[in-house]
Amino acid sequence: MDNSPLQVVTVPTAPYPDQRPGTSGLRKRVYIFQSRRNYLHNFIQSIFSSIDLRDRQGSTVVVGGDGRYFNRTAIEVIVQMAAANGVGRLIIGHHGIMSTPAISCVIRKYKAIGGIILTASHNPGGPDGDFGIKFNTANGGPAKEAVTNKIFQISRTIEEFAICPGLRVDLTTLGKQTFDLENKFKPFTVEIVDSVESYANLMRNIFDFAALKELLSGKNNMKIRVDAMHGVTGPYVKRILCEELGCPANSVINCVPLEDFGGLHPDPNLTYAADLVESMRDGQYEFGAAFDGDGDRNMILGKHSFFVTPSDSVAVIADNIFCIPYFQQTGVRGFARSMPTSAALDRVAKATKIELYETPTGWKFFGNLMDAGRLSLCGEESFGTGGDHIREKDGLWAVLAWLSILAIRKQSVEDILKDHWQKYGRNYFTRYDYESVDIDAACEMMEDLEIMIADKSFVKQRFAVEDKIFQVEKADNFEYTDPVDSTISRNQGLRIIFSDGSRIIYRLSGTGGDGATVRIYIDSYEKEQIFQDTQVMLAPLATIALKISQLHHRTGRMGPSVIT
Questions:
Q1: In a 3-state reduction of DSSP, which class is residue 454?
Q2: Which residue numbers delimit the Alpha-D-phosphohexomutase alpha/beta/alpha domain (predicted)?
């Protein structure tokens, strides 16, 4: 057996112009990573080169992914390149699998300089699906814009990358593996860890597991249905909900992570989690939940498939926050929501006299507030909810939060929501997604729309639909000044705000792998009519949103791909 040190080599390469990370890293079709020479290597080198050599030397980096197709291939390259770039230790999830919330947890626990997350989140997987690479920094959260811009700039001028091609790691065996490298004084260490345990331990310190065990497996146990959608959350829900909290094994479904998510689109909404919605209709289950590919998003359902919007979900958790022991100990520093998310959380913040922050879309904005000690709970309308225990949205945390509320309130999900609406009024909210739209057509539409709403004559304009009249009070392209470091984020979404507080928002999403996704958000508050159908209540505003944007005409798309 050859015990000589492994060789580190420098390989010439040529840059690609399209490796700009979006709000959730670099996402492309799998075939892009497979067919373009050194495409993966270039981006990984750009990540390592963005870290100062002094910080990189001997450092710890966490690596894991949602198990989608190309995950293992990418990890092999990352291991070889980390070793060649001076990283001292890699911590990798067993079989290369680790949820995004767990990676955030492990980065913080081991004081790593960062983590590389291999996921395209809720996008489809498999050879014909998407693949993604995201870099999280030492706080456990997504890299800030200054870092992702640096990575992009390096990727545009890269001429070579360093790699240790002979290094082979065994992802199937827990424990440490060490490798001697040429010209390195210390061996390079790879530690394969139980993907679930660090995260499960964190949850034990946040929630009252005894109360949850009584709820889920006690004398009058609640029947629940949880769909992991063949994503990374499967092992976590089996270990925590079934093995630890006593849920019957058949309470959780689709728990084996698959490279193509079993042909499912791992996006926890009413469209793509239709099987769960259907199984909840007959009323045999009192609580339902679904998760996306990498475990950071969640959908909450009550009996008979009663749907809790993500905007309402974070508001209800905020209003019942002391049902969670963690917040009894830490207190509540602040609430936050992304700008497109409905203003339901604002009403709780106002009533409880807790500071409310409205940020652009992207968890990194919440992380900055958390690091400054200003934020405890936050949420996004895109099925993301989380606390300051980590720096990512956290699907399973949100489910445990809801179960904690149910354990104490001893009411149904629907009754809790209806009580909430009676107390605060209701924000009717919907989002229309137009996926895989021609990028040029989408950009031109947004540019023309911005010119229109920026015209002074647009304010005070009236739009009449049926018997309703909506008058524009304010229109802008949302801009955010971070209260912590004063950095300014511009062009975060076009807003039209009407005199009654109703809002129409247009955004181009950065999380799609093919074409553009145009999102239209509609939010309208009602104090009295709180038990009506959402789409009926919002139909007039939807008509106005389409009329103003001329979306059907401009994109050729007559209907949305998804309505949530």
A1: helix
A2: 19-160, 198-301, 329-424
The distance of Cα 52 from the centroid of its chain, to the nearest Å, equals: 28
Residue 513 has pLDDT above 70, yes or no: no
Are 131 and 280 found together in one domain?
Answer: no
Output the pLDDT for position 22.
82
Separation between Cα atoms, residue 286 and residue 416, nearest integer Å: 13
- Going by the DSSP 8-state scheme, the letter that residue 283 receives in this structure is S
pTM surpassing 0.85? yes
Which ranges in 163-229 belong to alpha helices (H)? 197-204, 209-217
Going by their DSSP bridges, the two strands 384-387 and 462-465 should be labelled as unpaired
In the predicted model, is pLDDT for residue 313 greater than 50?
A: yes
Contact predicate 333/435, CB 8 Å = no
**460: three-class secondary structure by DSSP:** coil
Question: How far is 423 from 416, CA to CA, in rounded Å?
Answer: 11
Q: Residue 436: which domain range?
A: 426-563
Pairing of strands 516-526, 488-489: unpaired
**Domain presence at residue 3:** no
Do residues 405 and 222 lie in contact, with contact meaning Cβ atoms separated by under 8 Å?
no
Split into its structural domains, the chain has a count of: 3
Percentage of residues in the chain with pLDDT exceeding 90?
A: 90
DSSP-derived secondary structure letter, 298 = E
| Residue 362 confidence class, pLDDT cut points 50, 70, 90 | confident
Q: Residue 517 CA to chain centroid, in angstroms?
A: 16
- CA 361 to mean position of chain CA atoms: 10
Q: Are residues 189 and 204 in the same domain?
A: no
Q: Determine the longest span between alpha carbons in the chain, in angstroms.
A: 83
Q: Which of 121, 198, 502, 524 is catalytic?
A: 121
- 146 and 217 housed in the same domain: no
CATH number for position 492 = 3.30.310.50
Does residue 62 share a domain with residue 157?
yes
CA end-to-end span of the chain, whole Å?
A: 59
CA distance 317 to 326: 13
Q: Are residues 380 and 488 in the same domain?
A: no
Residue 121 among the catalytic residues = yes
Matching residue, tokens 């955004």: 507
**∠ CA(402), CA(406), CA(411), 5° rounding?**
135
What's the pLDDT tens digit per position in 225-248? 999 999 999 999 999 999 999 999
Whether residue 207 sits in one domain with residue 153 = no
Distance between CA atoms of residues 463 and 48, nearest Å? 52
Residue 87 to residue 186: CA distance in whole angstroms: 11
Looking at the DSSP bridge assignments, the partners of residue 335 are 356, 377
